[in-house]
Design brief:
This protein is mostly helical and about 475 residues long. It has 16 helices and four strands. Belongs to the EROs family.
C-alpha cells in the first residue's frame, strides 16, 4: 500500500514538473510570436546570426538534407563546400579584369511581341562607349551613336539603368562560334558593347508588374507548357528545374539587395519578399541547389579547357592571379573528394527518343534565350542575358551540340561564354549561401504558423514515453 502511495506521489511530482516546463515553453513561443509581430522585419534578421539556435534547428531539421534530387551530392556537403571553397574563390574571380567585363547587346527587338517593354526603343539605351576606349583588336564598327540615358525609358527607375563606364583593358581574341543552345543573335559584334559587371550589380531595379510577369509566363508556359507534371520525362524535368532554380536565384538577389526607401536611397534586405517568392516554397529552394550543382558540373567537366585558356587582359600580375584562382577552383582536393561528379549527365538522352528529345529541348532553350530581348528593364536584361548564356554554356559543355553524340569532339568556348559561366556560378553560389544562412531565421520570422510548429515539435519531444 505504501509503495502505491509513493508511486502516486512520484507521478504527481513529474506531472507538476512537466506542467512547469510546458508553461515555460508556451511563454517562450508567445514571446517569439510577439517579437515577430512588434519588431520591424527588415532589421530583425540583422540580429539573428546567433539568434535562437534551438528554434533554428527545429525549423530546418530534415527539410533540406540528403542527396539533392537528380544530383550526386547532398545538401550538407554542398553548403560546406560552398562556404569553405566555392563562394570565396568565385568572389575573387568575378572581380578580376577578365571576368568583370561582359559583351552584350542591350537594345534589341523582341521576337515574340511587338509592343512590350523599353527594349525596342534604341534611344532608351545607355550611350555607347567611345571607340577609343576599346583595345585595337576589339574595336567594332559603330552603326550610329546612341544618346544619353533617358530614365523615363527605364520606367522612371534610375536603378534600372546600366552604368557603361569602362577602364582601360585588353583581351586576347577567343574563338567566335555559335552556341546552338542559345540565340545566335548574340554573336553579332556590330551591335554589342562591353559592360563592367562590378558597376552593375544584380539587385532590385523597380522592374515589376505585367511586363515582368509576361517574361516569366512566356518562359514557363510557352516553353514548358506541361511543367511541372508527372507526365514529364527525366530530361524535361531537368529543364524545368534548371529554369526554376535560376528564377529562385534571381529573386533571392533582388530581395537581398532591395531599395527600402527611395527618398533616402536606403538599400537592404527585403525578407518578406525573399520568403514570399522563394523560401515558402521548398521546391524552389531544392531547384536552386539543383541548378547550382548542374552548372558546377559543367565547370568541373571543362576543367582542362578552362585551365589552358588565355586570361590575358594586358595586366600580367592580375592575369597570373586569375589563372591561379581558376586552378584553385577547378582542382581543389576537398571539392574533388567530397563531390567529384555533382551531376551525372550520362543518364540523359537515352533510348530511341534521345536525339529527338535533345533537339526539342535545345529549341525550347533557344526560345528562352531569345525572350531575354523582351525584358523591359536594361539592367534586368543584362543579367538575364548573362545568366541564360551561362546556362546555355553549361548545356553546351555537358551535351553534344546538335543532337548526336560526338565523343571525339573538341570543346570550343567563346570568351563571353566563359565569363557568363563563371559569373552565373557565382550568382548561384551566393544564392545558396544566402538561403543556407538566412533561410531558417527568415522562415521562423515570416511563416505565420512557425510558433505553432515549434510548439508542436517541443510538445512531441516532451511527451515522448
Amino acid at each position: 500500500m505504501a509503495g502505491s502511495e509513493n508511486e502516486m506521489k512520484s507521478k504527481s511530482v513529474r506531472k507538476r514538473h512537466k506542467c512547469v516546463i510546458i508553461g515555460a515553453v508556451i511563454a517562450l513561443v508567445v514571446a517569439l510570436a510577439t517579437a515577430s509581430i512588434t519588431t520591424p522585419k527588415i532589421s530583425l534578421f540583422r540580429l539573428t546570426n546567433g539568434y535562437c539556435g534551438c528554434c533554428k534547428s527545429l525549423l530546418s531539421a530534415q527539410k533540406y538534407s540528403g542527396i539533392v534530387d537528380d544530383c550526386c551530392c547532398d545538401y550538407e556537403t554542398v553548403n560546406r563546400l560552398n562556404e569553405e571553397i566555392l563562394y570565396p574563390s568565385l568572389q575573387d574571380l568575378v572581380k578580376t579584369t577578365f571576368f568583370r567585363y561582359f559583351k552584350v547587346k542591350l537594345w534589341c527587338d523582341c521576337p515574340f511581341w511587338p509592343d512590350d517593354g523599353m527594349c525596342r526603343l534604341r534611344d532608351c539605351s545607355v550611350c555607347e562607349c567611345p571607340e577609343s576606349e576599346f583595345p585595337e583588336s576589339f574595336r567594332i564598327p559603330f552603326l550610329r551613336g546612341l544618346p544619353s540615358d533617358d530614365l523615363l525609358c527605364q520606367e522612371g527607375k534610375p536603378q534600372a539603368a546600366v552604368d557603361r563606364t569602362l577602364d582601360s583593358k585588353a583581351f586576347r581574341g577567343w574563338t567566335e562560334i555559335d552556341n546552338p543552345w542559345t540565340n545566335d543573335d548574340e554573336t553579332d559584334n556590330a551591335e554589342m558593347t562591353y559592360v563592367n559587371l562590378q558597376l552593375n550589380p544584380e539587385r532590385y531595379t523597380g522592374y515589376s508588374g505585367p511586363s515582368a510577369r509576361r517574361i516569366w509566363d512566356a518562359i514557363y508556359l510557352e516553353n514548358c507548357a506541361k511543367y511541372p507534371s508527372e507526365e514529364l520525362c527525366h530530361e524535361e524535368r531537368i529543364l524545368y528545374k534548371m529554369i526554376s532554380g535560376l528564377h529562385s536565384s534571381i529573386s533571392i538577389h533582388i530581395a537581398a539587395d532591395y531599395l527600402l526607401d527611395e527618398s533616402r536611397n536606403l538599400w537592404g534586405q527585403n525578407l518578406t519578399l525573399m520568403y514570399d517568392r522563394v523560401l515558402r516554397y521548398p521546391d524552389r529552394v531544392r531547384n536552386l541547389y539543383f541548378t547550382f550543382l548542374f552548372v558546377l558540373r559543367a565547370v568541373t567537366k571543362a576543367a582542362e579547357y578552362l585551365e589552358q585558356a588565355e586570361y590575358d587582359t594586358g595586366h600580367p600580375t592580375e592575369d597570373l592571379k586569375t589563372h591561379s584562382l581558376i586552378r584553385q577552383l577547378l582542382f581543389n582536393p576537398k571539392l574533388q573528394a567530397a563531390c567529384p561528379v555533382p551531376f551525372d549527365e550520362a543518364k540523359l538522352w537515352k533510348g530511341q527518343r534521345g536525339p529527338e528529345l535533345k533537339q526539342q529541348i535545345q529549341g525550347q532553350f533557344r526560345n528562352i534565350s531569345a525572350l531575354m530581348d523582351c525584358v523591359g528593364c536594361e539592367k534586368c536584361r543584362l543579367w538575364g542575358k548573362l545568366q541564360i548564356l551561362g546556362l546555355g554554356t553549361a548545356l553546351k559543355i555537358l551535351f553534344s551540340v546538335n543532337g548526336q553524340e560526338h565523343l571525339g569532339q573538341t570543346l570550343q568556348l567563346q570568351r563571353n561564354e566563359v565569363i557568363a559561366l563563371i559569373n552565373l556560378l557565382h550568382r548561384l553560389s551566393e544564392s545558396v549561401k544566402l538561403v543556407h544562412e538566412m533561410g531558417p531565421a527568415v522562415e521562423m520570422t515570416m511563416a505565420p504558423s512557425a510558433p505553432r510548429r515549434i510548439w508542436q515539435r517541443m510538445q512531441a519531444s516532451l511527451f515522448k514515453s
